[in-house]
Amino acid sequence: xxxxxxxxxxxxxxxxxxxxxxxxxxxxxxxxxxxxxxxxxxxxxxxxxxxxxxxxxxxxxxxxxxxxxxxxxxxxxxxxxxxxxxxxxxxxxxxxxxxxxxxxxxxxxxxxxxxxxxxxxxxxxxxxxxxxxxxxxxxxxxxxxxxxxxxxxxxxxxxxxxxxxxxxxxxxxxxxxxxxxxxxxxxxxxxxxxxxxxxxxxxxxxxxxxxxxxxxxxxxxxxxxxxxxxxxxxxxxxxxxxxxxxxxxxxxxxxxxxxxxxxxxxxxxxxxxxxxxxxxxxxxxxxxxxxxxxxxxxxxxxxxxxxxxxxxxxxxxxxxxxxxxxxxxxxxxxxxxxxxxxxxxxxxxxxxxxxxxxxxxxxxxxxxxxxxxxxxxxxxxxxxxxxxxxxxxxxxxxxxxxxxxxxxxxxxxxxxxxxxxxxxxxxxxxxxxxxxxxxxxxxxxxxxxxxxxxxxxxxxxxxxxxxxxxxxxxxxxxxxxxxxxxxxxxxxxxxxxxxxxxxxxxxxx
Length: 509
Ligand code: FES
Known about the structure:
The protein has 509 residues and is α+β, with helices and mostly antiparallel strands. 26% of the residues lie in helices and 29% in strands. The chain has three domains: 13-73 and 184-248 and 340-403, FAD/NAD(P)-binding domain; 122-179 and 250-336, D-Amino Acid Oxidase, Chain A, domain 2 (2-Layer Sandwich), CATH 3.30.9; 421-509, Rieske Iron-sulfur Protein, CATH 2.102.10.
């Protein structure tokens, strides 16, 4: 089968099909009721709900709106997050499973209500969602999930056939789920925020949060925001002074291709129960219907050459849809928590005015809205029906000790392995390639661009010092410990790092 070439850089359809919104950079000091750090779907949803509740808000985005996880998602709006309900029931009880279902079903309705009220043109459509298996070993688990989901009030069914050209053993369907174009939705929602002492600022990276009488936030340009409430919605929390979140959030990457198939897509959103994960949904575009096929998740900065993950997806897409044309490819990063439930609520038990929303485990569309509703309710009325389940300081994090220990041992191993690994000293590279070499006893990452210029950076992560790994598919330096990512020139792509990489003298032509 023809191999996929990486002639074009990654190109998420969501970003390619929307223009950039024109918002200012923060260039003065301001004061608001609530500062929201992060201009993705979580931050914008929080800002929208809080402004509606009467607060003045300021969104502070390090880059562009919806550029990060929101611009790279598969955008399924569903309460079906894999086979999650029996896991929650076993781990935390029936009440917790009930709350998770209620919160995420409510999020679907809330998103639809906003779209209808504001008449947002964002390709929203109701769809049936399926978790399916091609293996006998998963049939019973799927049957049990369908039964429990019904008990939880979800429109769920156990089925043995789906309309995709795949022979399955079993599936659980959830009715009345949805999909949309996440950036069209986010940009429309954002339009309602500026005005009445509320603001959106882009390219305004937050580098410090201080607690005084109010919170004092500082951006990289040295501008200040004074706010009584602060919501950290920056995917990975950009506040490292407390909470040890780096030890209880685990970064994973996953991949998507959007294809033009010869067959019409039957509708529906699909995901496998087993590994390697595969997911499907349709994508209405100006050039006709495309099909998104996703999967291949792995720990950030670990595993095989990242180009192999795209090759695997392309091969799979062409197996299911012979003759498929690959039009877009992109990848994303998600954070997982030890018990698989996101963190949404007070940053710490003793921070009544500092909030956090993250750890959505690849299910950010409903969980971002659930988080926004929880934080809005905690701020406005002091309580939320889902606050205990999503509480970032919940006891079950300690109870999920095995995952916690295994994941952090993995981080410790990466730290040691990175420091001990032997590296060559020669810099011979083809254009488009990178490697780590030794210069004067220091490890240096060298990337040779298409024009032959070499870019040298110190491959020590500026967060906590792990050794970065080259991501050949995205041309970035990725941290295997907590997921920071940097361009080949050392600029931050995503945190927790807040400082760029040290560049090393010696860029040569
Ligand atoms: Fe923590 Fe790199 S992200 S050490």
